[in-house]
Every structure is written in structure tokens, then in C-alpha cells.
Amino acid sequence: MTFALSHFNAALIFAVCASVVFGITQRNTPRDMFKYGAYCFALFIGGVIVAAWAMWLIKH
Amino acid sequence: MANPQNTAALPRNAQSKTTPQANSMATIAWIAAWAVPGLGHFIQRRWIRGALIMAAIFVMFFCGLGMQGKVYSFNTGDLLDILGFIGDLGTGLLYFIARLMNWGIGNIHRAVADYGTKYIVVAGLLNVIAAVDAYHIAIGKKQ
Is some CB atom of chain A closer than 8 A to the CB atom of B143? Predict the structure, then answer.
């Protein structure tokens, strides 16, 4: 089975999965795990948005 | 030179975990965690952590295959291909199942397939991190 994701959806799934593993493995308590996972997710998605706008500005 | 005071300063649970039984559990934990994502946490009764790790790595691996990502085979050619193989190997049994089933060897037809290749490599790398975490739990370094 194959499927085609958009670039943003691919980045979104990547961010969710990586953030879950980072959160669980890099912190000790469930509360800290959740906070760190959310922080990583925000950085991933924020990085994607910033990079996308940077590329748009370069093009224009 | 080792300082006896440093040893005495270790947490009580860290000292008590250095028994042969704890060592064997540590070995089993990281091997199990590498072979099947999340299993290293399951055998230490970290059910939710294990389930989340298993879900995250399985989703990444199978999304990568679904996007027609490439599964690297053993090679001695390009450095990036060698590193890709090492990354893929981190997924444990998933890698060998993919190779046996001939998944991830077709021709790439779309640009997003390169994302799929990266998904598979990163799934392997995340599984290595999870295996190290399972080891740390087993030796008492982490709760």
C-alpha cells in the first residue's frame, strides 16, 4: 500500500513521532515528559514554518 | 583513581541494582528494546511508555514504507548509503522483516519518497534512543 502525503503532513507526522520518543526518553517524570515532548513538537513545527517562509522570501 | 566517597554518594537504588540479576535484566532490556520497539519498556512494566514508543516507531516505519521510502541493504559504497543502512538496522526485527518481504526496494516515482527513506532511518535512530532508555531504567539510572 502506498500513499502520498503533502510536505506539511509529512513534517507533522515526523514531528509527532519524534517528539513522543524524545519526551519519553529525555525526561524522568510523566509531567516533564509531556512538557518536553510538547516543546520539541513546537520547535519542529515552528522550524518548518520559519523555513517555509524563509524559502518564500528567498524566492520573491 | 576511584574515590570511595563517590561510590558512597551514589543513590541507594543505583547501588542495589548492580546484582547479576539486574545486569541480566539490563542486557535483556536493551536487546528486547532494539529487536521490537517498546518491548524493553514492556518487560519492565512501563506499559504506557512502551506503547507510545512502539506506536511512534511503527507509524514512522510504515509511513516511510507507504511513501515508497527505500530500505537500505548492506553496502560498502557511498558513505551516506552505509549510514542509511546503520540507521535502518536500528529498527531491529522490522528491518529484517522488510528485507525478507522485499519492502522498500522498488523504484522511486515521487519526490516525497525521499521523506519516506528518512522516516525509516529516523525510526531506527529513535529506536536506538529508546533502547538506551530501557537500559537506563534497568540499571536504575532512571525511574
Answer: yes
Whole-number Å distance between alpha carbons of A26 and A42 = 16
Among B130, B118, B101, CA closest to A21: B130
Among the partner-chain residues B56, B115, B142, the one whose CB lies closest to the CB of A21 is B56
pLDDT grade for B22, boundaries at 50, 70 and 90: confident
> How much is the pLDDT for B7?
44
Cα(B61)–Cα(B123) distance, integer angstroms? 6
The DSSP result for B78-101, as a single string, is -HHHHHHHHHHHTTTHHHHHHHHT
Q: Where residue B18 falls among pLDDT bands split at 50, 70, 90?
A: low
Burial of B41 (0-12, 13-18, 19+ CB in 10 A): buried
Residue the block writes with cell 504506557: B48
Mutation site, B44, B57, B63, interface A, largest A CB count within 10 A: B63
